[in-house]
Design a protein that fits this description.
Elements lengths: L6 E7 L6 H4 L9 H17 L6 E12 L8 E12 L2 E10 L2 E14 H6 L4
Antiparallel strand pairs: 1-3, 2-5, 3-4, 4-5
Length: 125
């Protein structure tokens, strides 16, 4: 059963593929905002994954994020997601990203619980 307050942290070393210059989101050799977002979403997904009904998963539906400070290649970065609200199938998380010097990003992320098979069987409109 899902409960508010559950938290999960993901970590990684910033590699060449995570850089803004490599992802095309900028021309600097620092952690790209899209790479930071992926880590935040991964933390939120994993925070609740083991507590979902069999055959269910979550999909991201909303993200509001601030990328506060640059993180260079080779530095470790982490993202922590904390479940702050449950409204039926809708889940809301506070997300933060850190490197060894402190916070680098923060925001709010929403996910919805879905049945995998039904979700994948939907036909595009």
């Amino acid at each position: 059963m899902l409960k508010e307050g559950v938290t999960y942290t993901c970590r990684k070393v910033v590699g060449v593929g995570d850089l803004a210059s490599a992802m095309g989101s900028g021309d600097m050799d620092v952690l790209a905002t899209p790479a930071m977002v992926v880590l935040m979403e991964q933390a939120a997904m994993l925070a609740v994954a083991q507590q979902l009904p069999e055959g269910s998963t979550t999909v991201g539906t909303r993200l509001e994020v601030s990328h506060i400070r640059a993180t260079p290649a080779g530095a470790e970065v982490s993202a922590t997601a904390t479940l702050t609200a449950i409204d039926g199938r809708r889940l809301r998380f506070a997300v933060q990203a850190f490197d060894l010097d402190g916070i680098v990003g923060e925001g709010i992320h929403e996910r919805v619980i879905v049945d995998r098979e039904r979700f994948l069987a939907r036909k595009p409109k």
